[in-house]
Amino acid sequence: MTTTPTVGVLAVQGDVREHVAALERGGGRAVTVRRPAEVEAVDAMVLPGGESTTIDKLLRAFDLHQPIRDRIAAGMPVYGSCAGMILLADRLADGAAGQQTLGGMDVLVRRNAFGRQVDSFEEDLHIREVGGEPVRAVFIRAPWVEEVGESVEVLARVEHGPAAGRIVAARQRDLLVTAFHPEVTGDHRVHQLFVDIVRQSLRERS
Ligand SMILES: NC(=O)CC[C@H](N)C(=O)O
């Protein structure tokens, strides 16, 4: 029997609807999460893009910071895109004053790393674990991963231009991050990869 995992999309700020749609197309059941009790009820979570400083403040205002941290520590699979990638980083460069992350992934992430001139751009990326054609990656004032710990697998790097070689997708066990926004392109393969990670994690825990 194949189970359909329930994935909660953090819905305090950011592009929530697009993630809900991409998760459903990728084989998951998507719900929105705004309350601590909802954090407890899901199998996994997506932290969407948006503004990481705002999301950080709202996580604390809505009493979601600690419950999500606790679930990450207990092994809940989480996919963080852009601002969500910043939130999953153990270490942050160029964060705003007082900005905190949830942490969980042994990486140093640099916020707004691509600089002003190239705030936003698109590139076709080859992503490990995502088969078929390259993925059209949309970067919007994106961060990059500057350093990775030993348990982190690099899934994709920028392939062209001045930032070539920079890490923009990575995985540490059941934590997945991308610096770009696959939810805005109509291609649900990254979300499908995440739903597969969640399914595998549920099988291992049952
Ligand atoms: N598209 C995004 O999520 C941008 C992230 C944003 N620059 C931040 O620091 O939070």
Automatic annotation (TrEMBL):
<dbReference type="GO" id="GO:0006543">
    <property type="term" value="P:L-glutamine catabolic process"/>
</dbReference>
<comment type="subunit">
    <text>In the presence of PdxS, forms a dodecamer of heterodimers. Only shows activity in the heterodimer.</text>
</comment>
<protein>
    <recommendedName>
        <fullName>Pyridoxal 5'-phosphate synthase subunit PdxT</fullName>
        <ecNumber>4.3.3.6</ecNumber>
        <ecNumber>3.5.1.2</ecNumber>
    </recommendedName>
</protein>
<comment type="pathway">
    <text>Cofactor biosynthesis; pyridoxal 5'-phosphate biosynthesis.</text>
</comment>
<feature type="active site" description="Charge relay system">
    <location>
        <position position="183"/>
    </location>
</feature>
<dbReference type="GO" id="GO:0004359">
    <property type="term" value="F:glutaminase activity"/>
</dbReference>
<keyword id="KW-0315">Glutamine amidotransferase</keyword>
<dbReference type="InterPro" id="IPR029062">
    <property type="entry name" value="Class_I_gatase-like"/>
</dbReference>
<feature type="binding site">
    <location>
        <position position="111"/>
    </location>
    <ligand>
        <name>L-glutamine</name>
    </ligand>
</feature>
<dbReference type="InterPro" id="IPR002161">
    <property type="entry name" value="PdxT/SNO"/>
</dbReference>
<dbReference type="Pfam" id="PF01174">
    <property type="entry name" value="SNO"/>
</dbReference>
<feature type="binding site">
    <location>
        <begin position="50"/>
        <end position="52"/>
    </location>
    <ligand>
        <name>L-glutamine</name>
    </ligand>
</feature>
<feature type="binding site">
    <location>
        <begin position="140"/>
        <end position="141"/>
    </location>
    <ligand>
        <name>L-glutamine</name>
    </ligand>
</feature>
<comment type="similarity">
    <text>Belongs to the glutaminase PdxT/SNO family.</text>
</comment>
<keyword id="KW-0378">Hydrolase</keyword>
<feature type="active site" description="Charge relay system">
    <location>
        <position position="181"/>
    </location>
</feature>
<comment type="function">
    <text>Catalyzes the hydrolysis of glutamine to glutamate and ammonia as part of the biosynthesis of pyridoxal 5'-phosphate. The resulting ammonia molecule is channeled to the active site of PdxS.</text>
</comment>
<dbReference type="GO" id="GO:0008614">
    <property type="term" value="P:pyridoxine metabolic process"/>
</dbReference>
<feature type="active site" description="Nucleophile">
    <location>
        <position position="82"/>
    </location>
</feature>
<keyword id="KW-0663">Pyridoxal phosphate</keyword>
<dbReference type="GO" id="GO:1903600">
    <property type="term" value="C:glutaminase complex"/>
</dbReference>
<dbReference type="GO" id="GO:0036381">
    <property type="term" value="F:pyridoxal 5'-phosphate synthase (glutamine hydrolysing) activity"/>
</dbReference>
<dbReference type="GO" id="GO:0005829">
    <property type="term" value="C:cytosol"/>
</dbReference>
<keyword id="KW-0456">Lyase</keyword>
<dbReference type="GO" id="GO:0042823">
    <property type="term" value="P:pyridoxal phosphate biosynthetic process"/>
</dbReference>
